[in-house]
Amino acid sequence: QVQLVESGGGLVQAGGSLRLSCAASGRTFSRYAMGWFRQAPGKERESVARISWNGGSTNYADSVKGRFTISRDNAKNTVYLQMSSLKPEDTAVYYCAAAESGTYFYWGQGTQVTVSS
Predict the structure, then answer these.
(1) Three-class SS of residue 98?
(2) Is residue 89 helix, strand or coil?
(3) Which of 25, 81, 91, 92 could form a disulfide with 3 if both were Cys (CB 3.0 to 4.6 A apart)?
(4) CA 48, 51, 52, 54: dihedral to nearest 10 degrees?
(5) What is the per-residue pLDDT across 44-97, written as a single tens digit (0 to 9) for each?
(6) SS3 of 90, please?
(7) Which of the 8 DSSP states describes residue 55?
(8) CA 80 distance to own-chain centroid
(9) E strands, 1-116, where?
(10) Dihedral sign of CA atoms 107, 76, 50, 70 in order
């Protein structure tokens, strides 16, 4: 089992950048694939970016390709989401999650990102 805590959200102007962090507890962080998801008001939760257990494979939603970068540091039990060229439509609560066998079982509490125009 793993507990996840996100940080780094906030208010930023369009075109700006933020880096989200997700700290995981437990000694088995490196066994999990990790993902960032987001949910905007009135919308369903959507996948933003995913990374394999060793960081060797990543994938992104089309809406964030070229602007967001997911990375992880297994020595620090942390996964990151670097967000650049932010747009108002990126406004959402961002969640990190850990997957076992392809299913995201463990979720953080979320961090709010607000992009002003």
Answers:
(1) strand
(2) helix
(3) 25
(4) -170
(5) 999 999 999 999 999 999 999 999 999 999 999 999 999 999 999 999 999 999
(6) helix
(7) S
(8) 6
(9) 4-7, 10-13, 18-24, 33-39, 46-51, 58-60, 68-73, 78-83, 92-100, 103-107, 111-116
(10) positive
